[in-house]
Amino acid sequence: MGEIQNEEIDIKYEEAGLDERILRAVSEIGYEVMTPIQREAIPVMLDGCDLIGQAQTGTGKTAAFGIPIVQSTDAEDESTQALILCPTRELAIQAAEEIRKYAKYYSGLRVLPIYGGQDITKQIRSLRGNAQIVVGTPGRVMDHIRRHTIRLDSVSTIVLDEADEMLDMGFREDIETILKDIPREHQTALFSATMPKPILQITKEYQKSDAVFVKIPAKELTIPLVKQYFYEIPKGMKVDAVSRLLDYYNPKRSLIFTNTKRMADELSDALIGRGYFADTLHGDLSQQQRDHVMSGFRNGGTEILIATDVAARGIDVDDVEAVINYDVPEDIEYYVHRIGRTGRAGRKGRAFTLVVGREIYKIRDIERFCHTRIESRHIPSSKDVKASKAESVLDTVTDIAEHEDLSDMISLIESRMFDRELTSLDIAAAFLKKAMGSDENEVSDADFITYRTEDRKSRKRAYTERDRRRRPGSHDGDSGKRSFNKKKIRSKDLNADGTVKTERKKPRFGFGRKGKQSFGRDR
Can you give the C-alpha Rg of the chain in angstroms? Predict the structure, then answer.
């Protein structure tokens, strides 16, 4: 297996030997310079070699396999020549739409997405109309293969997109069956964010020995337009912390990530109970429910979408202003996937991570892996939140006052001022208070501050206690004096005045059985 080392070189699409029709389509889309994964993968795929591409979401890998597939497909041959497998319906649709853009000027070339949740009879009718490029989920593709509505006889290229996610979702058996069923010599390209052992097993068994491995360094995976912060808080106050962040920053559209489906549902219920427009996206939803949730998030009816990592793979919304990691991701690389949902298309974004206890060490690991800096912040105070809410309301009403005719409203307010002996400031302040909403869910700032102070004290006590237990001898908790294990006192242990000598053997510092040096404390 050959590996391509990534270099910092900008290559334009015109320099890659692409068909004029593709260059025209790419130009209309607005692409100018290839991303690193495109720069390395496109030539390999055009040469017909097997490929393993390690790249994250948002690095342009759909074009990395989509462009060479379009160029290599014979539009006059109506048989299925390329098969692309994706883990979710949303990703299949998204990939198909993107590939259609590259094939815009290829007359007669059809790209068809097939997936679960859609009437299979409609898909069968579409397949009868012939599609040279099929993009689908493994389960539905297998269903069509069994029905003989998809034939693999002419397939010359197969792509496994987000291979690690497909394995996590239990598609390994389907994938291996599909790979075994392709009768003719073909090219196999696999794209994955991570390279766990099961992925490597598939590459070894189903790819040629000279497959090319392309890996994009982690430093190219972070997003410079995203400001990243973390907050140390107690576990029981996560919902309060999220509420503070949402109220203070007031993002128009935000994504919150949890590690489990159960936590996503619980958080959604809690936020809805507090008056937020929130919804949930996870694997237990039916396809119809997923479509409804995503529609609400895209059109602005849902301002906050709470999702698990696998479910969020199909989310492709450019104007997400903030990402909140309600739970620190279990896999470090998921952090990159999550924050990549904001700061897109040249926009700025924010990523907030809530940290409990020893999870602070995970933040340090993320910083090392991603070559980034995550800044420590305090949860905004109630005073800060109120000031932010007031500023937002005042900005809105100032805009109305400057651009709209308010003469009728002014008459009504003047009438009420004379009737109730109120000033205009009294009425304006009352309107502002009403617009800012109730503080019934507000928690005390001291709850956050007390936790941080006492938590550090408890950690210090814990470390002190641990060191005490590991030292030779022990401390008397009442007197603070050191007492030693009782042993027989010999004459040579006594001073001239009859008192016991205080000198004792030094703690043993040396090498243990494994050859590692021990320093009398946890390392």
Answer: 31
What distance in Å separates the CA atoms of residue 175 and residue 162, rounded to the nearest whole number?
12
* Enclosing H/E stretch for 174: helix 172-181
In tens, the pLDDT along 109-152 reads 999 999 988 889 999 999 988 899 999 999 999 999 999 999 99
- The pTM for the full model equals 0.51
pLDDT digits (tens, 9 = 90+) for 201-256: 999 999 999 999 999 865 444 456 789 999 999 878 999 999 999 999 989 999 99
**pLDDT-derived band at 2, boundaries 50, 70, 90:** low
Angle at 113 between CA 107 and CA 118, to 5 degrees: 135
120-128 helix and 138-147 helix, angle to the nearest 10 degrees:
60
* Residue 393 CB neighbour total at 10 angstroms: 17
Identify the structural domains of the chain with CATH numbers, from first to last.
2-217 (3.40.50.300), 226-379 (3.40.50.300), 383-436 (no CATH)
CA distance 416 to 424: 10
CA angle (190, 195, 197) in 5-degree steps: 110
Torsion of CA 411, 415, 418, 421, to 10 degrees: -100
